[in-house]
Write a structure and sequence with these properties.
The protein is of the alpha/beta class. It contains 6 helices and 5 strands.
Length: 140
């Protein structure tokens, strides 16, 4: 193996801004800060979510950020906004933040310890409504 995930995360951490939980708590609820949850939908259902955070699945993030992508989401093209990325523990968000910096997003950082640290600090957590059940298949 040419590199490891740990080495990739360490490289990313050297290039991005990392916020500790206390800093993130102070930023929460500010109009100019967008909390971006990279976790899988099942993680949100199981663990809860940070109130007000937008959900951008890690696998779609670059496509949602790029204005030239057919999947672009305007939330990622707001002047004056700071994007604080988080995942469960901070590894995915570190890699994602590096990618967004490389893509030219002007103000991006990540949360050290991710949602796990947020929850452990007693910060506000909302519950995500479970996805509705699929209707029965024809003939059932």
């Amino acid at each position: 193996m040419a590199t490891t995930v740990r080495a990739m995360v360490d490289d990313a951490l050297a290039l991005i801004v990392t916020h500790q939980i206390e800093q993130a708590l102070a930023m929460h609820g500010r109009d100019e800060v967008v909390f971006v949850d990279l976790r899988d939908p099942r993680e949100l259902e199981r663990e809860g979510l940070i109130p007000g955070a937008i959900h951008a699945p890690r696998g779609m993030l670059e496509f949602w950020v790029d204005p030239a992508s057919p999947y672009h989401k305007p939330v990622f093209n707001q002047p004056g906004k700071h994007y604080l990325l988080f995942c469960a523990g901070g590894w995915r968000s570190a890699l994602a933040a590096r990618t967004l910096v490389e893509m030219g997003l002007p103000s991006v950082s990540h949360l050290h310890g991710g949602f796990t640290a947020w929850k452990a600090a007693g910060a506000p957590v909302a519950q995500r409504a479970p996805r509705p059940a699929l209707p029965p298949a024809a003939g059932d």
